[in-house]
């Protein structure tokens, strides 16, 4: 239909609507005035204004004009909902408005800082996790990480590559009543607080073995292309030696002590037999683990010992041995007190420290999800994992994203691209992690997979596309305009890659 015909149609429709409205108002006025309704016509109510209008007549006119207007608004709304909602067949994605952001409760006084909207900070106090995807040198530190460390009132566990976050925020947090710790196992000057993984092992005899098996599994992994029997036996030996040092008051209960046992000049099988013979107080579990190793053939013992030696050679470093010799802070206190724990590493140290870091975060997750917070645990915990992908795969992390929010623990993970998550956890696990993060913040990216994910997640909007056709003939005919609909991504892949450096996308 041409534009001219549409104008005629709208004109006739408007005139008809005015006549219908006038007739309805006249009927309402006659009804209120108790006059015969059959005498009413569209002009009746307008003719009333030619007479003197008293207060009662004025009230009737107000109702007569208002009631049909409200009815028309209601009916029009229903017609619009019925007729036009279906027009958004490809989607109705749009950028959030101030009203929608307010409704989402993202202007909280305290909580996690997500960004800014105009001159207001976007702060969420919801018990949800967050993920920030930002390339290197994109401003994520000064834009997200540091502001949250300065703003978060509860306890913090911060994975701090290069110690930058500690230098910028530790003093401020200490001034505001926090006990601040920097655990930096390979600090060249030995300036580090201490954390002993064996101190976090349960004192319950049954749970103790399970906790040690988790540590052993992280330290001694099955080799990808060789017989896993040596790794399995090495894990069993580790559990036995760990139980021994933990039950021997004459020895420190540390992994370093286990490493030193392996370094004795005597045959390790003879050492295990001597331990069992001279320590009758040891549990049957300890004795069994040690004797299983001692009774193996010499060649088998050599293979098992070699596997365990390789796993524990990290503790040949005196800095690491000292940094794990004792515990200066308790994981259990994170919700009881205001603690700020920075885990400081340099980029070149991460690969070496990966097993120890995995143990630490595995124990953090296990301890904090063991029971719901009690009345003596009022503080919320923020686990801020800068350069999260550098930690490597932590098996319990996917569980952490699923469960920890219910234990007053929020995870904020920072990665350089979604590809890094794919490499570390695989596509399926990556999607699981993202689905648990209600707040997803994306900086401008040069990674195609990330840009595609952002574009798909933002959705599509329905747009009208007008095409003009013209018949070929000798006689003049007005061109015909045809309107069709199609879907258009709210944010195209290339647009995601060309955002200004400081611009962020976030949704909830």
CATH architecture assignment name of the largest domain: 3-Layer(aba) Sandwich
Low-confidence runs:
497-505
CATH topology of the largest domain: Rossmann fold
Q: Roughly how many Å is the radius of gyration? A: 36 Å
What's the overall average pLDDT, rounded?
Answer: 84
Number of helices: 18
Strand order of the largest sheet: 5-6-4-7-8-3-9-12
The biggest beta sheet reads:
8 strands, mixed
What's the end-to-end separation, in Å?
42 Å
Could you state the CATH homologous superfamily of the largest domain? P-loop containing nucleotide triphosphate hydrolases
Strand content: 5-15%
- Spell out the helices and strands N to C: HHHHEEEHEHEHHHHHHHEHEHEHEHEEHE
Which range best describes the helical content: under 10%, 10-25%, 25-40%, 40-55%, 55-70% or over 70%? 40-55%
Number of separate structural domains: 3
Class based on secondary structure composition and strand pairing:
alpha/beta
Question: What's the β-strand tally?
Answer: 12
Task: Give the overall silhouette.
Answer: elongated
Report the CATH C-level class of the largest domain.
Answer: Alpha Beta
What are the defining features of this structure?
508 residues; alpha/beta; Rossmann fold; 3 domains; eight-stranded mixed β-sheet; two-stranded antiparallel ribbon; 18 helices; 12 strands; 15% strand
């Amino acid at each position: 239909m041409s534009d001219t015909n549409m104008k005629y149609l709208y004109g006739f429709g408007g005139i008809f609507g005015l006549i219908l409205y006038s007739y309805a108002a006249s009927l309402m006025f006659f009804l209120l005035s108790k006059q015969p309704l059959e005498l009413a016509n569209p002009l009746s109510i307008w003719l009333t204004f030619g007479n003197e209008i008293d207060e009662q007549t004025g009230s009737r006119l107000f109702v007569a004009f208002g009631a049909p207007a409200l009815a028309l608004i209601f009916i029009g709304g229903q017609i619009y909902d019925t007729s036009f909602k279906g027009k958004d067949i490809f989607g109705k994605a749009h950028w959030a408005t101030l009203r929608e952001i307010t409704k989402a409760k993202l202007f909280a006084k305290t909580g996690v800082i997500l960004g800014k909207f105009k001159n207001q900070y976007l702060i969420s106090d919801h018990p949800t996790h967050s993920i920030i995807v930002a390339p290197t040198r994109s401003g994520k530190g000064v834009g997200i990480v540091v502001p949250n460390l300065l703003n978060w009132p509860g306890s913090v566990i911060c994975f701090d590559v290069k110690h930058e976050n500690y230098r910028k925020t530790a003093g401020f947090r200490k001034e505001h009543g926090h006990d601040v710790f920097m655990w930096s196992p390979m600090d060249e000057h030995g300036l580090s607080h201490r954390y002993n993984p064996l101190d976090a092992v349960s004192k319950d005899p049954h749970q103790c073995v399970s906790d040690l098996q988790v540590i052993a599994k992280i330290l001694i992994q099955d080799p990808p292309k060789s017989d896993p029997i040596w790794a399995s036996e090495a894990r069993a030996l580790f559990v036995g030696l760990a139980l021994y040092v933990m039950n021997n008051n004459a020895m420190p209960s540390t992994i370093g002590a286990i490493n030193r046992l392996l370094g004795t000049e005597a045959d390790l099988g003879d050492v295990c037999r001597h331990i069992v013979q001279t320590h009758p107080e040891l549990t049957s579990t300890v004795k069994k683990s040690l004797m299983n190793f001692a009774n193996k053939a010499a060649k088998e013992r050599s293979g098992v010992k070699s596997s365990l030696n390789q796993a524990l050679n990290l503790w040949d470093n005196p800095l690491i041995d000292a940094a794990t010799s004792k515990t200066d802070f308790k994981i259990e206190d994170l919700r009881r007190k205001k603690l700020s724990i920075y885990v400081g590493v340099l980029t070149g140290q991460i690969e070496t420290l990966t097993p120890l870091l995995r143990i630490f975060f595995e124990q953090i997750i296990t301890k904090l999800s063991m029971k719901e917070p009690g009345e003596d645990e009022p503080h919320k915990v923020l686990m801020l994992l800068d350069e999260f992908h550098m930690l490597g795969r932590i098996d319990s992390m996917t569980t952490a994203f699923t469960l920890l929010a219910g234990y007053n623990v929020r995870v904020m993970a920072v990665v350089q691209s979604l590809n890094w998550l794919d490499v570390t956890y695989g596509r399926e696990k990556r999607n699981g992690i993202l689905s648990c993060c209600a707040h997803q913040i994306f900086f401008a990216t040069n990674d195609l997979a990330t840009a595609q994910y952002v574009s798909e997640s933002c959705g599509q909007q329905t747009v009208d596309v007008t095409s003009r056709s013209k018949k070929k003939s000798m006689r003049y005919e007005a061109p015909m305009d045809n309107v069709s609909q199609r879907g258009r991504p709210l944010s195209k892949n290339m647009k995601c890659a060309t955002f200004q450096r400081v611009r962020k996308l976030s949704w909830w």
